[in-house]
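Many introductory courses stop at the sequence. We go one step further.
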Amino acid sequence: MINTAPFSHADLLSMFGPAAQTLPSDLLVRGISTDSRTLVPGNAFVALRGERFDGHDNIPEAIKKGACLILTEDASRVPPSVASITCGSTLHALGTFGWFHRRRFSIPVVAIAGAAGKTSTKDLVAHVLSSTLHVLKTAANYNNQIGTPLTLLQLTDDHEAAVIEIGTNEPGEIETLAAMVQPTHGLITNIGKEHLEKLIDLDGVEKEETALFDYLRDHHGLAFVNADDERLVKYAPTFTRCISFGVETGADIHPTVAFDDEVRPAVSLVHGSFTLRAQMKTSGLASAYNATCALAVAWALHVPAAHVQHALASYEPPATAGYGRMIVQRMGSLTILNDSYNANPASMVIALRTLHKFPATKHIAVLGDMRELGDAAEEEHMHILSEAHQMADVVVTMGEEFRRASERLNLPHALHAETLHGCRDLIREVSTEGAAILVKGSRGMAMEQVIDLLSEGNGE
């Protein structure tokens, strides 16, 4: 992500202390880069290390392209003639740049966390706020300790608000990102089983995600609390500034929701003078929850109801490379519910409930393994397979975890495929005219490839 955020010698001294004392006093950085391929003259280059790459290998290219400053963990990798800062962690240095730049702006900054639905909620909230404000939002799902500071560094004086998604896969990340983002407002979509390899269980997820609430409470921010989530609703009384939202329970923002024959929500809200009704283009129960989140944020930031209504009605999800977030696709006489973007237990349940509500002659759930569940993988795959058996007429699974769950449960109408082509063949065998087929799995399962195979020979 290209940016032009400026940093003077004084700024660098403030951020990095003695490590920056030898820098030229007239040094002026314009933009922070972590990718030598897109670096432009005047950028500082941060040499990040990853599991499969080492940015230090690209320092010569960065210098050749005109980097005015190198941030490194190894001083020997930078020629003495080139300005550099040696630090213990270049990842933390990148975060420091993002944190420092964020402090320059006194605009509303909405942080969005949660076990499921963060990205789609972020996109819809930003779309609604953009009806009246110039909004910076996190691109795609770049919600980690690299993507978040690079997003913050794109803030300019033109922005009137920001919607920043923050994610986690291990304890402490939400606390780190919340401190970096310095949100004025914060929303947690839900608490569900995610990244259990390191977060262990629901208590661990709750502790990790609610670090955002801790930051807001300590800094007098405004919290949006999901009243439908039994683990989150209890936090509402702990805030002096709080707006609750919910679809199933009473809350400050509590719209009524009706679904059409493609499970597209029509959202209606009467909240004082904030009154509207919007028929959405997106499908699924998750869309209704996303809209409720957007309504709460829009009301708090004083976006006129007419603008909110038009924004909700006009919203279409970003284009994807084959995978989708509950996108309805027609394929001859079949309907595909393409929710193949990613999966964890919480999002699986919502997707299965959407399939169950979808009007069809037959409901078929095609499910790929859920990753990063650690010791809970077996239990969670068995639970989802049992849920799917209740929500669908036929369940087709892929992946080792679902194979083991299928063998343990031995449920009727549950089929397992070892290959993508085998999965396609099973779907074709069990499909009937007018059937609805949910396709969902973790990103690593690439379940969109099943849809690609299904489209072959179907006029798609």
